[in-house]
Amino acid sequence: MEKIFKMMTLSAATAVFSLTLVGQSFAATSSFTDLDKVAAKDKIIALQQSGIVSGITPELFAPQAAMSEAQGVQLIVNAFKLNLDLVRFVKEPKATDYFVKANNDSWYANALITAAVNNVELPKDLDPNASLTREQFTHQLIRAIEAFGKLPLINPVVVDISDMDQMNVEYSGSIQRAINYGVIKLSADGKMNPKAEITRADAAEEIYNAIEYLKAHQAPSAPAEALTATEGMKLITETLGLVNTDIKIKIDPNSKMTRESFTYLLIHTLQTSEKLPMIKINPVDIKDNDQIDILNSGAIQTAIAIGAVQLNPDGTFDPKAEITSADATEIATNVVEYLKSHQVPSAPAEALTATEGVKLITETLGLVGTDINIKIDPNSKMTRESFTNLLVQTLQTSGKLPMIKVAPVDIKDNDQIDILHSGSIQTAIALHIVKLNPDGTFNPKTEITRVDATEIAKNAVEAIKALPNNK
Q1: Which pTM was predicted?
Q2: Among residues 290, 172, 244, 200, which one has the least CA distance to residue 6?
Q3: Rounded to whole angstroms, what are the CA distances from 132 to 38, 115, 120?
Q4: Is the pLDDT assigned to residue 146 strictly greater than 70?
């Protein structure tokens, strides 16, 4: 599998959950009309009226309908607001990259990808279309609330379950904790019915109970308390979406973190996890620089350059001051905002996006800051045709390319070229910015890599220099 650069934030699911039980979403305009014989009626109605769950129609919930594995995953993804907003993929992910039985064209594909990338604990042989059992859903939900709800580990009071012998031994711990948390209850005869298919009503009730437990057991925050190294590392990895990533940094886990040590740890983590693109730093004058450990000075200058930290009004940094949870969170959040707008550039052999293509062209041609009004989908992958057209249009609209007489050449695959791009391609060929293949083809629809695009942009610079008016 290709390497994935994870850059995401996980919202703590301790207050507001937003989820649906099916693929469609409807406004909660009225209570469900098919819950009269459902014990958890009030809970389901409360969830619906809060906009948390919806039904197969605005009026119907289909409480006895069995849930599939895919629907269970969708519940957890939506419950914890998991997303891929800050994820940088080397290649477009597919559900089958993570679950071999998945269908990449299905409604649930994105949910499976999101769950996998966010480290939701799911079996690799998960069958999205298979019915979900009570023990499977309960295990997945409990592991999720413990991970994303930041619940402390507990030693549950072991409850006697009459049908324990029918239970998957790997799920027994989660189910015991689910009973202790009040997420599930045993039947009157002490059974859990682990192998029974879980219904939409039962799943909704478990979600409701989990929400109530999380609301009542939020870890007390102490924003003004100095952060320990363990807490600092946890804050950094969770904010940057690096949970379960192996970041090897030597540090005393119980030491109190200073502004200096936290900033170093944050920047070092960014660099070792390959999240931080190369940037040119102009060192600033720090009035108390003599108090900064020389090994940390580079990281602090980098943090200042990307806007993660700021100097005090008097130009000091206070490197030895202990850092609080509130201050550390603000710094980590500043980094997330920087990463959103400064994605790591694509690898040399990776297809260029339109955003990257525009950036490459404007930088190579010295047009950074110039207002170039060319309509293009910023996230689309660039082809040889689209990149060449964008380059020539940019040259023309910026006034760098004067009117020239072009003698059209025969392009063997000209029928594959968009007629709106043909003029730009002929111009690029005439100026030796691009060349045809030995067989006379141009391969217009082939995605263009950073290496090829850089070479073409450099050819454009040389072509402009060689024009009569520029000699």
Answers
A1: 0.47
A2: 244
A3: 20, 16, 16
A4: yes
